[in-house]
Design goal:
Elements (H helix, E strand, L loop, with lengths): L10 E6 L4 H12 L4 E8 L3 H11 L3 E4 L5 H8 L5 E4 L2 H6 L7 E4 L7 H9 L3 E4 L2 H17 L4 E3 L2 H10 L7 E8 L9 H4 L4 H4 L9 H9 L1 H13 L7 E5 L5 E7 L4 E5 L5 H9 L30 H12 L3 H17 L7 H12 L8 H17 L11
Parallel strand pairs: 1-2, 1-5, 2-3, 3-4, 5-6, 6-7, 8-9
Antiparallel strand pairs: 8-10, 10-11
Helix pairs in contact: 2-3, 5-6, 6-11, 6-14, 10-14, 11-13, 13-14, 13-15, 14-15, 14-16
The protein binds nicotinamide-adenine-dinucleotide (NAD) and magnesium ion.
Magnesium ion binds next to α7.
Length: 399
């Protein structure tokens, strides 16, 4: 598709979390294709310096600073500017409702993505969803709302974008199973004892992708792949046993669908998040980009191996949560968010993370058929409990 294509209408977009890894890459895409996208809304949690710069470059109508204490600073940085500045997390859910927005890119991290996504769907906006936690927390609710309001959810996560692309044109055909590929993170091949002593710096050093801190830690513990399995469960209506995980260290094959006739379709390319971002913004069309192409001379071997559930307990816990259903994935997610934050603050060790998740899954009351209020309550309760577990000694419970 090129710019002369008459099928294309310029899209007005809101980018929630525009100062993060996915947010800034989305803006790079917008900058590369100024004829295609109009930015109406940008948001940050607290990085008002970068947001001020983005406001000058992209001229949005409205912005949100979720962390209220930082909004005044943004006003000082901007001086006289016509942009409408809102503050507080609740404003995120309000700005997505503006009539002139076609598509909302949800590039927030963690639970903060849930309410804005729900509000955008209720207003009939198309969703480009990077924020996997939204589907982990309340996938049934989000999916049924999307169906009710006839809203398409375009996955941004590279694995889910791959599956989505493989399924295009296959509407009436049966899926036997899917394989989500995983790089294995920085600790692939490490022994369980070695994982005890992993430092923050080691865990933040991902071999193939440069991403925000939370997802980088989730990749190191393989919780990321567990969250992605739950994300795929909701996006593609698959049973847990239809979702398999395979380690593929080169991150070239982004995921695979196996159909009922045994045929397998894979989507591949260099690991570059701008590819799934562009696709989520323009699907089912493709833009002509100049991103670096895969070369068989540079990468001549693709390899695969099974993950070891004894070492990557989080992956096993996420499958357990998916199988239990109800609010269990919400419990898993909230406990994991608390644990990752504590690890990043060096309050607990690497293996303290799965321990906190497992304890929370045992402790918090399981509900089979939760509504939105139950999810909000579960998230809150789990955070309080998980925080109570944080001590410097958490690690020793694993020894
Ligand atoms: P990031 O930490 O780099 O950026 C997060 C953005 O959200 C920032 O703009 C931040 O200001 C904002 N934010 C953070 N906490 C907030 C809060 N409480 N309220 C409001 N705004 C808040 O994260 P990222 O790596 O861009 O990841 C975003 C989402 O995309 C995550 O759910 C992640 O799992 C998913 N994802 C990321 C990648 C990647 O390559 N980075 C790949 C696949 C999926
Ligand atoms: Mg992914």
């Amino acid at each position: 598709m090129d710019e002369s294509d008459s099928m294309w209408e310029k899209k007005s977009i809101a980018i929630l979390g525009s100062t993060g890894s996915i947010g800034t890459q989305t803006l790079q895409v917008v900058e590369d294709f100024p004829e295609w996208f109009d930015v109406k809304v940008l948001t940050t949690n607290s990085n008002v310096e970068l947001l001020a710069d983005q406001i000058r470059r992209f001229n949005p109508e409205q912005v949100v600073v979720a962390n209220e204490t930082r909004a005044e600073k943004l006003k000082n940085l901007l001086g006289h500017h016509s942009v409408r500045i809102h503050s507080g997390e609740a404003a995120l859910a309000e700005v997505v409702e503006a009539d002139n927005i076609d598509l909302v890119m949800v590039a927030l991290v963690g639970y903060s993505g849930l309410m804005p996504t729900i509000h955008a769907i209720r207003k009939g906006k198309a969703i480009a969803l990077a924020n996997k936690e939204t589907l982990v927390v309340a996938g049934d609710l989000v999916k049924s709302l999307a169906t009710k309001h006839q809203v398409e959810i375009y996955p941004v996560d590279s694995e889910h974008s791959a599956i989505y692309q493989c399924l295009t044109g296959e509407d009436s055909n049966g899926i036997e199973k899917i394989y989500l590929t995983a790089s294995g993170g920085p600790f692939r091949g490490w022994k369980a004892e070695q994982l005890q002593n992993v430092t923050r710096a080691q865990a933040l050093n991902h071999p193939n992708w440069s991403m925000g801190n939370k997802i980088t830690i989730d990749s190191a513990t393989m919780m990321n792949k567990g969250l992605e399995a739950i994300e795929a469960h909701w996006l593609f209506d698959l049973k847990p046993e239809q979702i398999d995980v395979i380690i593929h260290p080169q991150s070239i094959i982004h995921s695979i669908v196996q159909f009922t006739d045994g045929s397998m379709k894979a989507q591949m390319g260099l690991p570059d998040m701008r590819v799934p971002i562009v696709y989520a913004l323009t699907a089912p069309n493709r833009l002509k980009t100049n991103f670096k192409r895969f070369s068989f001379e540079e990468i001549s071997k693709l390899t695969f191996e099974r993950p070891d559930p004894k070492r990557f307990i989080n992956l096993y816990l996420a499958y357990q949560a998916m199988e239990k259903g109800g609010n269990m994935p919400c419990i898993l997610n909230a406990a994991n968010e608390v644990a990752v934050q504590a690890f990043l603050e060096e309050k607990i060790g690497f293996m303290g993370m799965p321990w906190i998740v497992e304890q929370s899954m045992k402790k918090i009351t399981h509900r089979n058929d939760p509504g939105l209020d139950d999810y909000i309550q579960t998230d809150h309760e789990t955070r309080v409990f998980a925080k109570s577990l944080i001590t410097k000694k958490v690690d020793s419970k694993w020894k």
